[in-house]
Amino acid sequence: MSKANPTIMVVEDETLLLQAITKKLKLTNLDVISCASGQQAIDYLGSLDEMPDAVWLDYYLKDMNGLAFMQALKEDPRWTNIPVLVVSNSASPDKVHNMLGLGAKKYILKAEYRLDEIIEMIRQFIQDDEGSGQSATPKPPSPQAGQ
Questions:
Q1: Contact 20/115 with Cβ under 8 angstroms?
Q2: SS3 of 8, please?
Q3: pLDDT of 131
Q4: Which pTM was predicted?
Q5: Is 94 helix (H, G, I), strand (E, B) or coil?
Q6: Please, what are the domains in the chain?
């Protein structure tokens, strides 16, 4: 999507964290679609004419986990090229491998990055996708993701 302000869908079930992420993204000139559950995000995607430029996904949601969300994304061809950044409090090697295998662009631990750094990663994903015209293939997990 080429427009002045890219749109990020944030899927996070912790209300205060969702509000903080949304505020910070808006302050950096990004448009935000805030979703407090995986199902809300899926329903919202189904109603959109124009897809978001990226998804910020919390792995652990009250209604589903990141694997279920990624599987739902794969079920609709309109959603398969949306870059997904998984942001979680924990990351086993199997979990990271499974998420990347389902198409997540990157899996990071919340504790290892500042909010500004995560926002910069999202911006880079959007630039990479606009430059190639499609989503890049998933990269192997970074060493810190498996710790």
A1: yes
A2: strand
A3: 66
A4: 0.84
A5: helix
A6: 7-146 (3.40.50.2300)
